[in-house]
Amino acid sequence: xxxxxxxxxxxxxxxxxxxxxxxxxxxxxxLRVAALCDPNPARIxxxxxxxxxxxxPEAAAWRPGDFERRLRTxxxxxxxxxxVDAQHDAYIVPALQAGCRVVTEKPMTTDATRCRTILSxxxxxxxxxxxxxxxxxxxxxxxxxxxxxxxxxxxxLSVHFEWLLxxxxxxxxxxxxxxxxxxxxxxxxHKSSHHFDLVNWWLRARPLEVFxxxxxGFYGREAGERHGNRRDYERAHGAAQALDDPFALRLAxxxxxxSLYLDAEHHDGYLRDRNVFGDGITIEDDMAVLVRYDTGxxxxxxxxxxxxxxxxxxxxxxxxxxxxxxxxxxRWQPAGARSLSGRGAIHGDKAMANAGGPRILVxxxxxxxxxxxxxxxxxxxxxxxxxxxLRALYxxxxxxxxxxxxxxxxxxxxxxxxLALVTGLAANESLGTGAPATTxxxxxxxx
Length: 447
Prior knowledge:
This protein is an alpha/beta fold. It is built from 15 helices and 16 strands. The protein has helices spanning 18-26, 41-50, 67-73, 88-97, 112-125, 139-149, 169-172, 181-184, 187-190, 193-203, 221-227, 255-262, 265-268, 385-394, 414-433; strands at 7-12, 31-37, 60-62, 78-81, 101-105, 129-132, 156-166, 207-215, 286-293, 298-307, 310-318, 321-330, 358-364, 370-371, 412-413, 437-438. α4 links the parallel β4 (78-81) and β5 (101-105). The chain is globular, with a radius of gyration of 22 Å. The two termini are 36 Å apart.
């Protein structure tokens, strides 16, 4: 809080994910959403309505071209960056130079050049940049870190991480801007950075070398025609061919999606419901990665973006045994059961139907395996991670900081963001060259 009142914040990018931050800032009396920055005025208006400011908006509407000037003229203290991944640096760098505290959605950025620029700006300004890795704050993930630190399985020699996106959530990355690698960096950067950060954090390790294979084998025109899933339309809205397509997203049937995208597209032409078996997709949907860390640990990682169920399995093989984490986030359901309305398909939406839960199983050497007791699991908030992350970033709603048993680890720093990013960047480089890639050749981070 400033000497004259609440700290003033601007949220950059007003898509669906930004709602988590605008709502969190609005709940805290020591913070104020002073501005919303986006090229699309309809999406800004959507967020103003969420803030209860439909008639007399308090949050000013900024055009991106006015961002740097208005940071200073409007007295901004906090900046939240939730826009297209490849544009993060265009807001992070001037915000740090203006003396603002910055929180950015993951990934921090999408390529090595932008990453180096961000890191050098943090060093030059001494500014604070936090990366919103909410998976760190999931209590189940925190329990895994405690068990590993306590030596439950001894020295961790290898990790296997299997991540499955189901055909509702996974398909969604192939409908929107994420389908073009120039905007998102691909799933190795946009989505898997969550997991690469987790492994860095769990192992207290730094990735050194990465080798990967990847392909677009399920989505896209060629694959869709090969396996018979393709329907012939560009976007689902108004297309007769999309009516019986379980992969189609129905914007008109979901109030939030209609307001954010369908009613806003005349301003910028952005289509949120494109055919996942269409042209122009440049990201992969199936990737296998091998990572070597500075501790000597190796990790095999596999991402599948077209699974019948969603979740992840992680196994840590150590000198005293094996620890297994399994999280089931969705189970099988009939085709189109929720995707026809768009629910369950957007980032940050409510809990998926038929969601299962987490399990940690420890298999000691020469002893019976046992389950580790776990806290309750919140599917709607990334396992409880969203709210815990927001408290770590902004304090409690009453303005007091986290304390005692409720305190979460400090937010991920710019260095943490870079360490998660370079694994995906090195994987992308290896996909292109067919050879291993070293992370230091992309972004030197030192020990």
